[in-house]
Amino acid sequence: MSSTFGTLFRVTTFGESHGKGVGAVVDGCPPDMELTESDIQVQLDRRRPGQSRLSTDRSEADRVTILSGVEHHRTLGTPIGLMVRNKDQRPGDYAGFDPIPRPSHADYTYQMKYGIRARSGGGRSSARETIGRVVAGAIAEKFLAQVYGVEIVAWVSAVEHIEAPDVDMHTITRAAIDATPVRCPDRDTAAKMTAAIHGARDDKDSMGGIITCVCRNVPAGWGEPVFDKAEAKLAQAMLSVPATKGFEIGSGFSGTRLRGSQHNDPFVKKDKRLGTSSNLSGGIQGGITNGEPIYFRVAFKPPATIGKAQQTVDFDGNDVILEARGRHDPCVVPRAVPIVETMAALVLGDLALRQRTRI
């Protein structure tokens, strides 16, 4: 199993949903950067369960502990060990499910690959695995902000068929996004999304959605063609997040409906650098950042584990009715916002260090 991501700024995540804890080891973080647990906790608090009725009611404080790599609040340049203890795990919620692979979950595929699987909570296939990504990505975020002024902001732009109007990607802030529980900056749309998610929860069902992300102040020149293009690394990062089913950058699939004369981004002079008058490229051309904001969208499917009765079969092929117990999100997108942000930070932090080697 590959649990390591990155080339120079590397993160290895560990832990299972209902084990003793989850965490990460970060290798490659530059030395002498100020870092405290509170720097990391901000994003963990945005990801943690039990924030509202829109999420699972699993009660976890998700407090991070820095185990190594930091002394007197300064990074040492050595591996940074990070740990979050599981406090409210309930393996008993999964009793009796052993013989039944949950539809569209990873129970069946993990069993086929390894011949064994974590019996409770999905183990490494659980979204709780993303805690390791978030704690590592929060460190990358601080590095990018301090050294380059990079800002990464993501928000919920759609839940099922409910779509939010476009926002100004140059000015949208996390404060505006966090002003609603569903993390959609448009209040009217947020209210509709919230009502829809409550309805799915009451029906013991689930819903999918879309997260849009913008990365501002990214310098031109980051990205490693041919196979490590900036958008390719972002796509890999986002599609590695549990429940993701789609990724598009810039104009995405809608760009296929335009002609080249409509889709091209003409160059213009911006202060002391070249820029583009439009940004259908999404801030990346030829796999290399061009200095414009990077923006992309990530599609999340409805969570697979639901309480509604489903006709399926057990591992022996016998017909069964499955009504899953346990505590699960009716819609993952509100809590996935900081995951998308921190995964983007891991990609950009790694590309920044790789570009440094060329200077």
Describe this structure as you would to a colleague:
The strands form six sheets. The protein has a five-stranded antiparallel sheet with strand order 1-2-3-7-4, with helices on one face. It contains eight helices and 18 strands. Helix 1 crosses helix 3 (130-148) and helix 1 (37-47) packs antiparallel against helix 8. The protein has 359 residues and is α+β, with helices and mostly antiparallel strands. The protein has helices spanning 37-47, 107-114, 130-148, 174-177, 187-202, 230-239, 260-263, 333-356; strands at residues 4-5, 10-15, 21-27, 64-66, 70-71, 74-75, 80-85, 151-159, 162-163, 209-216, 244-249, 267-270, 273-276, 284-285, 288-289, 294-300, 310-313, 319-322. A hairpin with a 2-residue loop joins strand 5 (70-71) and strand 6. The radius of gyration is 21 Å and the shape is globular.
Name given to the CATH homologous superfamily: Chorismate synthase AroC
Biggest sheet: strands, sense, closure? Answer: 5 strands, antiparallel
Shape category: globular
Strand elements, count: 18
Strand content: 15-25%
Unreliable segments (pLDDT under 50, ≥5 consecutive)? none
Mean pLDDT: 93
CATH topology: Chorismate synthase, AroC fold
> Treating each run of at least 4 consecutive H or I residues as one helix, how many helices?
8
**Radius of gyration from the alpha-carbon trace, in angstroms:** 21 Å
Strand and helix order: EEEHEEEEHHEEHHEHEHEEEEEEEH
Strand order of the largest sheet: 1-2-3-7-4
- CATH hierarchy: architecture: 4-Layer Sandwich
The end-to-end span amounts to: 34 Å
Structural class assignment: alpha+beta
Number of domains: 1
Helix content: 25-40%
